[in-house]
């Protein structure tokens, strides 16, 4: 009976420790419900901007039980493309950005701050989409500008190889727009901007676009500076043809 009492006491103590232990946010604490807070046409909403719509929807988002919201890239993107054969067009969604300016197709900088404030008041934390792997340098930036032929771009080393000093991951598309995230200048500038999102735009977490383009160690370096226990998630995908022929995913669509 004495042994049984000791066993019950030990189990009770362990359960108490589990309940009281702080969840590991970066390791999946399991306490958050994340809402994808935009879609591919959100940058083209009229007459209201997407940030204005989010401001109005913030109370509903909070009441529905969401604790975090994945927001679109905040950096300005004026790119565009047209496919005459298919009759489709796009661009400007933030994934081919050219500057850290927050006045984007989703709305103005004041509208962004207003939306994040409204979401925060509703108990919903902002997780920003960030795109450190590639950018559009065909348009001049005022807040950030990475010059060519200084080993700040993947194509500054010809050919770029796994052992190259001009990149540390897979190329996005042709790789011509890929930044060299292993460069101290590029890496530190990204780190500075992530802090800016945290300190001035209410970022409580980051969603990293195309994580195949840089190493896990790079993300760890950035997140230790941003907030070692802050939330982060990465986009990792492959097209079917990139898998071995013996893998069923090779023929998946």
UniProtKB/TrEMBL annotation:
Keyword Signal: yes
Coiled coil: none
Region span, Disordered: 164-185
InterPro entries: GH, GH13_cat_dom
Domain Glycosyl hydrolase family 13 catalytic: residue ranges: 32-253
GO terms of biological process kind: carbohydrate metabolic process
Keyword line: Signal
Protein name from the UniProt record: Glycosyl hydrolase family 13 catalytic domain-containing protein
Species, as recorded: Pseudomonas rhodesiae
């Amino acid at each position: 009976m004495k042994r049984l009492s000791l066993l019950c006491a030990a189990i009770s103590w362990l359960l108490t420790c589990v309940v009281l232990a702080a969840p590991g946010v970066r390791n999946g604490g399991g306490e958050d419900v994340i809402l994808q807070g935009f879609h591919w046409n959100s940058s083209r909403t009229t007459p209201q901007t997407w940030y204005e719509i989010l401001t109005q929807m913030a109370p509903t988002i909070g009441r529905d039980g969401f604790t975090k919201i994945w927001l679109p890239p905040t950096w300005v993107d004026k790119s565009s493309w047209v496919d005459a054969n298919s009759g489709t067009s796009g661009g400007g969604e933030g994934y081919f950005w050219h500057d850290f300016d927050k006045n984007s197709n989703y709305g103005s900088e004041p509208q962004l701050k207003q939306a994040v404030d409204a979401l925060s008041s509703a108990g919903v934390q902002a997780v920003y989409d960030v795109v450190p792997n590639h950018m559009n340098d065909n348009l001049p930036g005022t807040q950030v500008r990475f010059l060519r032929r200084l080993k700040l771009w993947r194509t500054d080393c010809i050919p770029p190889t796994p052992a190259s000093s001009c990149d540390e991951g897979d190329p996005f598309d042709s790789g011509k727009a890929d930044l060299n995230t292993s460069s101290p200048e590029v890496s530190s500038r990204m780190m500075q901007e992530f802090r800016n999102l945290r300190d001035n735009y209410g970022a409580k977490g980051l969603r990293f676009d195309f994580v195949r383009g840089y190493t896990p160690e790079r993300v760890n370096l950035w997140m230790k500076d941003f907030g070692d226990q802050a939330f982060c998630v990465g986009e990792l995908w492959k097209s079917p043809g990139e898998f071995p022929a013996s893998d069923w995913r090779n023929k998946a669509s």
